[in-house]
Amino acid sequence: MTNSVYSINKNINKSIEFKGLKAQYIWYLGGGLVCLLILFAILYLCGFVLLVCLPVTVILGSVLFMHIYRLSRTYGEHGMMKKIAKRSIPAVIKNNSLVQLKQQLLHAQTI
């Protein structure tokens, strides 16, 4: 029997990255590009001249790329989800049972 050397994939739990885009931002960019393709087709089928459709699509595509790359750099892999989750945390927690208990005690003392 011969001993074989197998290479082990050590990046098994790392998130995917493509040219600086991390994790979910790849999907956001892909979805945005599909939307731009549909927008171009709709504009062209509505009768707009190609010299109007093409610059509009290129400008919006450039804005999309810059925005998605900025989000990826700013928030990283999980940062944007954490920011969205942080917004749903209430600023104040009210305990209405204590308020009702106080009112009942005050009402009982006056009787």
Automatic annotation (TrEMBL):
Keywords for this protein: Membrane, Transmembrane, Transmembrane helix
Domain of life: Bacteria
Pfam families reported in the protein's UniProt record: DUF4133 (PF13571)
Protein name (Swiss-Prot/TrEMBL): Uncharacterized protein DUF4133
TM ranges: 25-43, 49-72
InterPro entries, per database record: DUF4133
Species annotation: Lacibacter cauensis
